[in-house]
Design brief:
Strand content of chain A: under 5%
CATH architecture of chain A: Up-down Bundle
Oligomer: heterodimer
Number of domains of chain A: 1
Distance between the termini of chain A: 24 Å
CATH architecture of chain B: 3-Layer(aba) Sandwich
Shape of chain B: globular
Largest interface: A-B, 21 and 23 residues
Order of helices and strands of chain B: HEEEEHHEHEHEHEHEHEEHHEHH
CATH topology of chain B: Rossmann fold
Distance between the termini of chain B: 50 Å
Largest sheet of chain B: 8 strands, mixed
Radius of gyration of chain B: 20 Å
CATH topology of chain A: Growth Hormone, Chain: A
CATH superfamily of chain B: Vaccinia Virus protein VP39
Strand content of chain B: 25-35%
Number of helices of chain A: 7
Radius of gyration of chain A: 17 Å
Number of helices of chain B: 12
Chain lengths: 201, 306
Amino acid sequence: MSLFAFYVVVVTLGILSMGFQLLASRLLSPHFGSAIDVWACLISTFLAAFSAGAMIGGWISNLEFASRRRWQIGWMTVAIVALAATGFFGRGMVDTIAISLEPGITPILLSCVGLFFFPVTALSSFTPQCVQFLATRGTPPGKASGLVYGVSTMGNIAGVMLTAFVLIPHFRVSTLLHIWLGVAVVSLAGLLRLLRAPSVP
Amino acid sequence: MKLAHIILSLALPAALLAAEAESYVEHFDTIYNSLTVERRGSVVELRARARGGEALESAVDLKDPLMPIVAYTRTLYAGLFIQSKPQRVLMIGLGGAGFHRLFTAAYPEALLQTVELDPKVYDLCRERMQFKPTDKTPVTLMDGRMFVKRNREKWDWLILDAFRGGFVPPHLKTEEFYRECAARLSDRGVFISNLHATTELFYSDIKTIQAVFPQVVLFETTGRGNVIACAVKYREPNIVDSAKWPAAESLQRPHFAGRLDLAEIRKERIAIPTGRMRNAKVLSDDFAPVEFLDALKANNADGRDK
């Protein structure tokens, strides 16, 4: 049962990460449009966050248990606070940046990094810890890594399709950002519970 | 007679060769658009790739650059019935400057400020379509919404004609943006928007415009799928009653002769499709599924006017 719940959480985090990218594009578009320059900044920010999150998560997964728990709770807090900030203050922040700076790549990049880098980094930091979770339960590390990244990527695909073709046509972006926050709180709390058993002796 | 025949037989192939030499098709991929410029004889067309084909963005006849070739650019002059003395005009979307040439000839004292997002469109407009911006027709390269946000001037006409490959960017379709436009209008200014009338988006468009502007009048470019919405931010005087509009003859300008028939444009007035709008949603920055609404019926990207 815990393994099933584990995969549900992995899929959910995948949905949240990539679905968030489409919501991010809608948050930026009133100020910067939705052309290739916006997408270049957005995709780069998300990839940088995935990269940073993977490295941070890899480092956390090898800490001793007590310290690891502190970092897990810390990054969960970062994810929730950053998602809440985006959901409640994101539009105002983009507006301020867009008006304050000269038009060009700088305000777009600054908005992307300021609003989306931290929540995505925080969400991504849990992926290597999920690999560690499987590995400590007897799954060979290579297989564990393949399973987690494979399942997470399926969640990414679901997140993109669901957000693009079902959610955005029917719901307000602000409503969706609040839903994202709620789902993130529940799924990260669930994951934190699953990861509670010490995995490094 | 024989001599004339000889001259004609020599001149005709030469003329055909010259016409062929003047014809070309060029493609340009820019950061915002995939564009085609095609010249056939003296007519140069600017088209943008859109879903399922190419949308005609603009066209100019270099032999008579004042002639509005693309039908809806004539309908934009419906604004004259609402605000007949356009001294300061802001146009969002340059295209091939199909509107600009006749307007600046007819109103040489007026300022026509244009905002264009794509630098390549501006280059092509000058190089291929022979548009020559002056201090009366300045062009600013910027996102239209960003310009409206930053601009503090007032405009008699604010024309929204910004497309990207036949589609209007969602951020130029929202209630918030229309409010920003309304704030930039002079007291008796008119907001003029080129709308696609062939998709479900049209009904949301009108409903959104109505959410901001108390009075809205529509003109349909005959058989082209374009509707020009004219909207004002005041309730009085009444602009909806066409009997109160100035007569077409009184608005006539010498350069309009043979190019623009205001009496015909007056006849393009259509009613607001209230019934079809009942289920339409107002578009906002928070909710603007423009692409989805625009795909609900066949779009007009089959080579007709954008």
